[in-house]
């Protein structure tokens, strides 16, 4: 006799949404979470200035409909992410302010290309190669990228090698590096993944669809806490799952708290690389482990700098900064409406994060403040509070924003990607076919897993 109908492994957004949907079907559910808090990559904390800041994800996108509906259902307010005014493009030691384009598709990384004052030949080459990526993305099927035209060649070519073949100049490489490091999927370098994977990320989570469109009043972190509070009776914290063993009659799930639960189905809603730490019986087939071993997490550090007010707004600036500085590849205004306090959210990604985290604390802080000042002037170097959160150091996430695939992995191992293992169903944002790596994907994958488990269990 099973203890519960379904065990959900992981109380991130995806696991919490899945458990909630199953409970609404009338199922008995237990959620096992490794950390001492729910939410996973959805995580916020209080600041000295009295507001909450999101250490993990914070933005919703223009067509993130599942997420928008959830925010509304939870009674939380949304407001447009502020982009009024010029942005700053820092390139080869020169700080340029320029207006943002109406549409990402017409822009050079959000900026009106002609306003940047860059050599027209370099700009048109970057735009031509960006258009070539868009064209490839339109040809990559979301649920089966390995079936795209020319998939094998595209998957065996690193993004760097493709750019070499195109004799791409530094500006075009910078645009692609930005896509790989912080543009959605995030956290990897041009030599670490294939052109097929990059095209797939833009097929399923296009930057042109404005994924950083709105923010939540009081911060996104509330979402995880509220979903967890609704299901407090079903949630066990500090319960990392170590083993999942299936027999003819049931699935047994053991966590390090010592408890073993018997269930009729299991939903595993954790990042792919972490699934390798669970002992499955029967073992995962070789195709599964091969795929998981080729799906590392990106490298990501989030920086939040708080100021009494959003001073850049008085200078007609939007807070959007992009450039080739050594650490901060992107900064954006994430202040509450009204701009008090002023908050700049920034990211250190991929190899820059690897290098940064090897430095002593004082060097790390000085580097971040120096880049903030390069974008936003000397005032930016003296924040009231500087919060730096290294996701690579989190044992239950091991990097961010999401996983990426190494060259050749989609075509050699891709078809296994979403296949259940016996009575184990995969959720988590990495299992989504639309907006994987984002909150929206986490919700989609959680709902899909709940529907699948419900269909298995029957009425
Ligand atoms: C810095 C940063 C910025 C981001 N920005 C955005 C953004 O602006 N907009 C956006 O849409 N998305 C953003 N994201 C991505 C977004 O946060 C994630 O896509 C989403 O939160 C993933 O949810 P999840 O439930 O799939 O996974 P997770 O949040 O990773 O949840 C998995 C849970 O499983 C737990 N776990 C792991 N292993 C075990 C185990 N063995 N046993 C039990 N529990 C386990 C973990 O502790 C965790 O709580 C960002 C992420 C980061 C880190």
Instruction: Determine the structural class based on helices, strands and strand pairing.
Output: alpha/beta
CATH class of the largest domain: Alpha Beta
Count the helices. How many? 15
Which CATH architecture of the largest domain would you pick? Answer: 3-Layer(bba) Sandwich
Percent strand equals: 15-25%
Attached small molecules = flavin-adenine dinucleotide
Number of strands: 19
Question: Which regions contain 5 or more consecutive residues with pLDDT less than 50?
Answer: none
Q: Could you name the CATH topology of the largest domain?
A: FAD/NAD(P)-binding domain
Oligomerization state of this entry?
single chain
| Total domain modules | 3
Characterize the largest beta sheet: strand count, sense, and whether it forms a barrel. 8 strands, mixed
Radius of gyration: 22 Å
What is the averaged pLDDT score?
97
Shape: globular
What is the terminal separation in angstroms?
17 Å
Helix content: 25-40%
CATH superfamily of the largest domain: FAD/NAD(P)-binding domain
Care to describe what's here?
- The chain is of the alpha/beta class and 459 residues long.
- The protein has three domains: 164 residues, FAD/NAD(P)-binding domain (3-Layer(bba) Sandwich), CATH 3.50.50.60; 132 residues, Polyamine Oxidase, Chain A, domain 2; 86 residues, Guanine Nucleotide Dissociation Inhibitor, domain 1 (Orthogonal Bundle).
- Helix content is 32%, strand content 21%.
- The chain has 15 helices and 19 strands.
- The strands form four sheets. Strands 1, 2, 9, 10, 11, 12, 13 and 19 form an eight-stranded mixed beta sheet that branches.
- The longest helix is centred in the first third of the chain and has 20 residues.
- It is globular.
- The two termini are 17 Å apart.
- The model has no long low-confidence stretch (mean pLDDT 97).
- It binds flavin-adenine dinucleotide (FAD).
- The site of flavin-adenine dinucleotide has 40 residues, from α1, β14 and α15.
